[in-house]
Amino acid sequence: MERLDKILANSGYGSRKEVKALVKAGNVTIDGVKVKDSGIQIDPEKSEILINDEKVLFRNFIYLIMNKPAGVVSATFDNYDKTVVDLLQPEHERFKPFPIGRLDKDTVGLLLLTNDGDLNHKLISPKYHVNKVYYAEIDKEVNEEDVKAFENGIILDDEYKCMPASLKILKVDKDGSRVEVTIQEGKFHQVKRMFLSRGKSVVYLRRIRFGPINIDESLKEGEYRELSEKEFKALTYSEYEE
Ligand code: URA
Fold first, then answer.
1. Residue 33, number of CB atoms within 10 A of its CB
2. Cα(19)–Cα(4) distance, rounded to whole angstroms?
3. Whole-model pTM?
4. I want to staple 166 with a disulfide (CB 3.0 to 4.6 A). Which of 24, 76, 182, 208 is the partner?
5. What does the pLDDT look like over 163-176, one tens digit per residue?
6. Which domains does the chain have, with CATH numbers?
7. What distance in angstroms lies between residue 197's CA and the mean position of ligand 1's atoms?
8. Ligand 1: lining residues by beta carbon, under 6 Å
């Protein structure tokens, strides 16, 4: 048994103060009966709680997939720029999700957000080899030597030696190249710096896969949704190699 206000606040329906006001205003029913006292004790497993006729879902965690647009930063707060969290609706924002790993301000594509710290830790730790796949456009011709250098581990400008990465050449012409890059780490500006070490620049970068999750092409840039049950299971139950 738990207090009604605690149950509602923990499930993401607002702060304790906010849910108290919600109950007091007569918006909440328990097993069909309107309640006004948010301090009553309830067993959430046994009672049906409705807020404005909608069933309350009990959960503490949220998992979102976003198609990140350019121009917003992958953070929960920024003094100057709009953040990915600013793009969320209040019903999702109230769970206080944060991005799993970062994409640069100008990078677009697949970004996961959650408030599940344990899962976040597992997914961003280089100890677990979670593949991140990027589609990139490069200003120059990418060749087989670049592919080999990526395989062998690129050395970045700060002497850091990257883990082996795979580079797939999709198209090359005189204006530049289109490639797909798979990395397992997430160092600052990693893909851009890997190409810079080869004397080439990334002019467009889009993440298309994160572990078992593919970008959802039906989401426009700036849109997001909750992960499906299938995606959630794939993400949380995958055996990431240690
Ligand atoms: N590598 C980069 O350089 N930038 C990103 O946003 C992601 C990977």
1. 8
2. 9
3. 0.83
4. 182
5. 999 999 999 988 99
6. 2-55 (3.10.290.10), 63-126+212-240 (3.30.70.580), 131-210 (3.30.70.1560)
7. 14
8. 103-104, 107, 189-192, 205
